[in-house]
Write a structure and sequence with these properties.
Elements: H1 2-15, H2 26-29, E1 34-39, E2 45-53, E3 62-70, H3 80-94, E4 99-105, H4 109-114, E5 118-125, E6 128-135, H5 139-148, H6 151-155, E7 170-171, E8 177-184, H7 186-191, H8 193-210, E9 214-224, H9 227-244, E10 248-255, E11 260-268, E12 283-288, E13 293-294, E14 303-304, H10 311-318, H11 320-324, E15 328-331, H12 336-347, E16 351-355, H13 367-372, E17 378-383, E18 396-404, E19 409-412, E20 418-422
Parallel strand pairs: 3-4, 9-10, 16-19
Antiparallel strand pairs: 1-2, 2-3, 4-6, 5-6, 7-8, 8-11, 9-11, 12-17, 12-18, 13-14, 15-17, 16-18, 19-20
């Protein structure tokens, strides 16, 4: 963008004297850097802004905006600068960014604050006073709130057994049986019945796995508009049951009704692993299957790491918690990695910090998508710092955070800065 480069040079070198000769830096040479421009009615470039990853390493979802410029003749009430800032914020969030910073000249701080940016601290750029400002990205908090926030008030009257409040499964009193039950979103059952059937097994087996239980059988309840639709649901369910080596013991099927699917899974263990067994100071480990890819039609939301796996691989992954029995474990649900960590921390009566750079992640996946998607198989565990890793076969594990005093979830970045991901309790159900 030669015109944008000229506008920058005219403004920052000749007009303001911030730089000598030119204002180019290594961000201009990074192929990941994006430039957004504003044009007048004749198509001439009258302003621009750049944004992109902060450093040369892997894109962790930490981006910065900069070099915002508007041509002298286009400044004023038309609001071109404002439009460029808003466009940069929207593009950053579209790219899956979770931290978006900018160093802003003191005189522009009021504009950025009016647009919702927050001041972090004073900094110097080119020997000139600036303010480091941050655009508040609430993607993780919104995901957690949308899926889990109403649970506390809704479920308070049911009084689940203490010690397992908010857990993925429920110990049946007086037995070694663990029961789990999950329903699939009706819209997914309607438009993608085979995949819905597969996922109904997947999520329930994962729930048992998080408690260290071995699955012994499934019960399904299916609603469908007709027999053909029910057959597609049951085909996916049966295929998954065979892949995981878990029998379908029975269930109920009803035709001529709106699409619906729920599955109950039964498992066994003498020593259930609770979701609320963590304590401040415990290390947080994520163990996830990074193989596979986005499910068609669910890009950025559902990672399919399971449908191509052999039975022995699936059983190794789902048996990993039972093999080690950490202090606390939860399988990653629709609240995503960060939201599920918030639930584990909430049940444990503490907060959590997630080290973004240490999170195991598929290489081509945006961090914002990865921390908020449903990842197929992913298990969060908390235990003493020297506890052994989960022996999960094809899944990859790493310590990537810790439980802390307080509440909520923070994201810790390579520069030592921690940004807020979830401000407080995720479900409102309290400690286990």
């Amino acid at each position: 963008m030669k015109t944008y480069a000229r506008l920058r040079r005219d403004a920052f070198v000749h007009e303001q004297g911030l730089f000598r000769g030119h204002d180019l830096d290594d961000r201009d040479d990074d192929p990941r850097t994006l430039v957004l421009v504003a044009r007048d009615r004749e198509g001439a470039v009258v302003g621009g802004v750049r944004l992109g990853p902060v450093d040369d390493g892997p894109d962790l979802g930490w981006w910065a905006g900069g070099r915002l410029v508007v041509a002298p003749g286009a400044r004023g009430p038309r609001g071109i600068g404002t439009a460029l800032v808003r466009a940069a914020c929207a593009r950053a969030e579209t790219e899956g960014v979770l931290r978006f910073d900018a160093t802003v000249q003191i005189r522009n701080q009021v504009l950025f604050k009016r647009l919702g940016w927050r001041s972090v601290r004073d900094v110097m750029v080119a020997d000139s006073p600036h303010v480091l400002m941050r655009w508040p990205i609430g993607r993780i908090a919104a995901q957690a709130a949308a899926t889990k926030a109403p649970l506390g008030p809704l479920l308070s009257s049911l009084q689940p057994p203490r010690g397992y409040v908010g857990d993925d499964g429920a110990p049946v009193p007086g037995t070694d049986v663990i029961a789990a039950c999950d329903a699939i979103v009706p819209s997914m059952v309607e438009r993608d019945p085979d995949w819905a059937g597969w996922c109904s097994v997947l999520v329930n087996v994962n729930d048992l796995a998080a408690m260290g239980a071995s699955p012994v059988g499934l019960l399904d309840a299916v609603g469908a508009k007709d027999a053909a639709h029910a057959a597609r649901i049951l085909a996916g369910l049966g295929r998954a049951a065979r892949a995981y080596g878990v029998p379908v013991l029975g269930g109920h099927t009803q035709l001529g009704v709106p699409a619906a699917l729920s599955v109950t899974a039964l498992g066994r263990t003498d020593h259930p692993v609770p979701g609320g067994g963590g304590r401040p100071g415990y290390a947080v480990r994520l163990t996830a299957d990074l193989g596979g890819g986005w499910r068609q039609g669910y890009r950025g939301r559902q990672w399919d790491s399971t449908s191509h796996r052999r039975t022995d691989e699936l059983r190794t992954m789902t048996g990993a918690v039972a093999a080690v029995r950490p202090a606390a474990a939860k399988d990653v649900s629709m609240a995503g990695i960060a939201g599920t960590l918030g639930m584990l921390a909430e049940a444990s009566g503490c907060g959590a910090v997630l080290d973004v750079a240490a999170v195991p992640r598929p290489g081509a996946v945006a961090m914002g998508d990865w921390l908020t998607c449903f990842p197929g198989f992913a298990m969060l565990t908390a235990d003493a710092p020297d506890a052994p890793p989960l022996p999960a076969g094809p899944a990859i594990g790493a310590v990537c955070g810790e439980l802390t005093a307080g509440h909520g979830v923070g994201l810790r970045w390579p520069d030592g800065e921690t940004t807020e991901a979830v401000a407080g309790p995720v479900t409102g159900m309290g400690t286990a």
